[in-house]
Amino acid sequence: xxxxxxxxxxxxxxxxxxxxxxxxxxxxxxxxxxxxxxxxxxxxxxxxxxxxxxxxxxxx
Length: 60
Fold this sequence. Notes:
Layout: H1 20-36, E1 41-42, E2 45-46, E3 49-50, E4 55-56
Antiparallel strand pairs: 1-4, 2-3
């Protein structure tokens, strides 16, 4: 998770998932609370490498 200035947030920490589907499902359920904690961008990582395009967490 990154903040508005592009800095990686140390909190909130997300769980580790075994499938991309599970990670995307979790993000879909929790993005509002993540945005409320200051995150503006989420990235799914696999072995430390970005696995999908980043997702903006800003509300419309």
